[in-house]
Design a protein that fits this description.
Blueprint lengths: L3 E8 L6 H10 L1 H9 L3 E8 L17 E2 L6 H9 L12 H7 L18 E8 L9 H12 L5 E7 L16
Parallel strand pairs: 1-2, 1-4, 4-5
Antiparallel strand pairs: 2-3
């Protein structure tokens, strides 16, 4: 287990995600509790899938922009940061915002302090749609390998809402 871990949530902020963001926000306590119990030095940040709105495009959302083990009211702030809203574009991009978030100028500017070169990087994608990024999976993997030097220092998980979910109003009209 990594003792230093930068965890980046990529949360779909399209119109169909309100219920799912709420569910994640309610469940997020367990994550911080497990990390604290394991004595992990973590940074947890949240970005959205929206690459059209200039306030997003890989920028960390919330205040503070990321939480760590020393953040007062950690669980409350993380819950608030996860609730990114549903006013984002219907074009859910998963890879592009990660690449922007972890590249210049955001890396040493707006997102400064979140990413640590020696820490493991964990990506958590939360969406109900397929990726519509400009970057394909090969470019994304190359980016991550270049960033970390070794893909064994990167993990990725997807919290994917099934296409047959009945409590989800699809905003794109596409088939599964």
């Amino acid at each position: 287990k990594a003792k230093n871990n930068d965890i980046l949530f990529v949360v779909d902020n399209s119109g169909s995600m309100q219920t799912h963001q709420n569910n994640l926000s309610v469940q997020i306590d367990g994550l911080s509790r497990e990390l604290l119990n394991a004595a992990v030095d973590f940074h947890i940040g949240v970005i959205t899938t929206d690459m059209q709105d200039q306030n997003h495009q890989g920028r960390l959302v919330g205040t503070p922009r990321y939480v760590d083990p020393w953040t007062p009211n950690l669980d409350l702030l993380l819950k608030k940061n996860i609730l990114v809203g549903t006013n984002g574009t219907y074009e859910e991009k998963l890879f592009d915002p990660v690449m922007d978030a972890l590249s210049e100028p955001l890396l040493s500017g707006y997102n400064k302090g979140f990413y640590r070169e020696g820490a493991y990087l964990s990506l958590v994608f939360v969406t109900d749609a397929e990726d519509q990024s400009v970057a394909d999976e090969n470019l994304f993997l190359h980016f991550l390998k270049t960033l970390k030097g070794d893909l064994s220092h990167v993990s990725a998980q997807g919290l994917i809402i099934p296409s047959d979910e009945t409590n989800c109003v699809r905003d794109d009209g596409r088939s599964p």
